[in-house]
Amino acid sequence: MPEDSKSKVDLEGVPETLLWNLYQRASEARRPDAVLKDPKAIGLVDSVIDYPFEERFGKASLGQWQALRARRFDEEIRRFIDEHPDGQVVALGEGLETQFWRVDNERVRWLGVELPEIAELRERLLPDDTGRVRTVGGSALDGEWMEHVDPSKGLLLSAQGLLMYFQGEEVHRLVAECAERFRGSTMIFDGVPPWFSQRTVEGKMKTAQGYVSPPMPWAVDAAEKDRLREIPHVAEVRDLRAPRGRGLLYGFVFPLANRVRVVRELGVSGLPIMAMRFEGTGRP
Length: 284
Description:
alpha/beta; 2 domains; 9 strands
């Protein structure tokens, strides 16, 4: 596609991170031995979006890491869809994630919750031709999106790359509202360890090109998991290990390290990914 026919995207702050995630994922997906197949992501980066990805973010050196994280979320969503083929997945803050097209069973209903400007961007760059995808504009914290949720045939909540940008009390309030309203459902989410959170707050997570990661004030460690478990109607919080990848580091060292709880919670071999089950009848 000629450069002048691409869609120019101009974002900053937390919304810009969706472009970093997309760039890393597409870079991995181009490989013949990719750990994640994602033709939609490749198409967006190569042919649809007008944005200086490499000039802004540098080389996509974390492509496999990002793809393995996405694949772990994919696996949990596929498991849910296998058990609830007509269920609903609610993706909070999915940015330009192309997950729906990777896991679609041609029956599942998908609800995205995004800031209004990102909701508009998704609808423009990732149009739905199935009639089963809807994006609601608004913050995940305001609760209005809950009016659009239909848990009658099974419900899975997903918050990939989102909660770490909130304050701790905001995360707890959101979890409490979901646990109260969506009994028997599950939320899958990720976080960052305290050392990583502190570096982002101090502005020390940056690339050679000058891109600085936005602050991520909410961190996850054993104590924070215990606090989550104490929220009313939270029945379980459990770790989800990233799948085995390619090469010595991702294929052997990280999977072995992730078997040790203390190493896993340090986040040196991948950011924490978790599943939280809410009390109630039925389990998605």
